[in-house]
Design brief:
The chain is mainly alpha-helical. The protein is built from 2 helices and no strands. The radius of gyration is 18 Å and the shape is elongated.
């Protein structure tokens, strides 16, 4: 599809730049790390609940 060839690289580049800018802010990075730790705890808890 032509749209995919034209728009996707530009769209992905914009998305990556936005993410980089977002995580340059220490508060955003801290919030992400907290979310990641919570997600990992939930996954571990879920894995422990399953029978072996």
């Amino acid at each position: 599809m032509m749209l995919e060839g034209v728009w996707m690289p530009q769209l992905l580049g914009t998305l990556i730049k936005s993410a980089e800018e977002f995580y340059k802010d220490p508060e955003n990075e801290k919030a992400f790390q907290e979310w990641l730790a919570q997600r990992q705890r939930e996954q571990e808890k879920g894995n422990n609940a399953q029978p072996a």
